[in-house]
Amino acid sequence: MNNKKFTPEKITKLAPNEIFVFGSNLDGAHFGGAAYAAVKKFNAIMGQGVGLQGQSYAIPTMQGGVETIRPYVNEFITFAKEHPEKHFLVTRIGCGIAGFKDREIAPLFTEALTMQNISLPETFVLIITEK
Predict the structure, then answer these.
(1) Is the dihedral of CA 128, 1, 15, 9 positive or negative?
(2) Closest Cα partner for 75 from 6, 24, 124, 41?
(3) CB–CB of 80/118 below 8 Å?
């Protein structure tokens, strides 16, 4: 595993090259949880439910089951590959207001383990790497 750095539990500030990755809804109504923090601290845009916005990146998690999240996670991983100069701090997307368990969401990020510019929550890494 190349990614030895875990996303901190609480993120209150970012370095200029860091991006806060949070779970959102497709409407971009960022009124709770990490989405609200993304608006208040990292320039997320109300009304934008997907992608890069300010120093944050939204992954929709509230539109259905886990399989509806997978395409957005894949899109995020592709984006991170295209931007190696940025470091992405993935929060426990989908595991708060959206109501998913870490065990359901973590496997979506398996490919991210090999990427130097993505940090994942420790719980995600432990789930992905358990035998």
Answers:
(1) positive
(2) 24
(3) yes
3-class secondary structure, 130: coil
3-class secondary structure, 43: coil
pLDDT 10s digits, 96-130? 999 999 999 999 999 999 999 999 999 999 999 99
What does DSSP say about strands 18-24 and 56-60: parallel, antiparallel, or unpaired? parallel
Residues 11/89, Cβ–Cβ less than 8 Å? yes
Element (H, E) at 39: helix 33-42
pTM exceeds 0.85, yes or no: yes
Distance CA 41, CA 104 (A): 28
Collect all residues with Cβ–Cβ distance below 8 Å to 9 and sequence separation of at least 6. none
